[in-house]
Prior knowledge:
Blueprint: H1 2-27, H2 38-48, E1 55-58, E2 66-68, E3 73-76, H3 78-82, H4 86-103, H5 107-122, H6 124-134, H7 140-178, H8 184-224
Helix pairs in contact: 1-8, 2-4, 4-7, 4-8, 5-7, 6-7, 7-8
Amino acid sequence: MFIxxxxxxxxxxxxxxxxVKSQISKYSxxxxxxxxxxxxxxxxxxxxxxxxxxxxxxxxxMIGDHYDPLKKVIALTPDVYEGRSTAAVGIAxxxxxxxxxxxxxxxxxxxxxxxxxxxxxxxxxxxxxxLFIMMRVMTPYTGYMLMAxxxxxxxxxxxxxxxxxxxxxxxxxxxxxxxxxxxxxAETTAVSRVLGAAALTYVAAFLASLANVLYYVALxxxxxx
Length: 225
C-alpha cells in the first residue's frame, strides 16, 4: 500500500511539473495587451499598494522567481523580468502578492518565514538516525520515528505554504485587470491557468511529504512488532 502511495505522489508531482512547464510555455507566447514587462508589472503593482522599500531584480534562472521577505527583494527570472507575455505578468504579480502579504503581516507568511530555519535543521533527523541505526547505537524503531518527525516538519512547512501561495495568486488575479495590465477574458484565463498549474506543484509537494511521514511511521511500526 505504501509503495503504491509513493508511486502515486511521484506521478502527481511529475504531472504537476509538466503541467506548469506546459502552461508557461504556452502562455509565454501570448502577449499581455498592456505591453508591460514582468518587471514593469511588479513596479506598477507595488506602487499601487504604496510599497516603496521592495527591490525588483533580475535573478539567475536556476534560483527561480521568488520574494525574499528578509531582504525585501522580488527576484524574477530573465523570461519573467523582461517578458511581456500573460505568463510573465502573471508570475510577476504573484510574487508581488507575497510582498503585499508581508506589508500586511499576513499570518501564514509569517509562520512560513519562521519555519524556514526549522526545516533546514530537520534534515539532520533523516541522516543522523540512519547513521545511528547502522552503528547500532539506536534502535530501528526510535530511528524511524525520528525520521518521521523530520518528515513531519517538512510536511507542516508545505501545509503552511499552501494558503500563502493560493492567497498570492488570488491577489494577482484581482490586481492585474484592476490596474489595466491585462484585459478581457482571454488574458484573464491565461493568467489563471499559469497560476493554477503552479499551485498544483505545492499541493504535490505536500502530498509527497505526507507520504514520507506515513512511510517512516509504517517502518517504525513494523520494527516495533
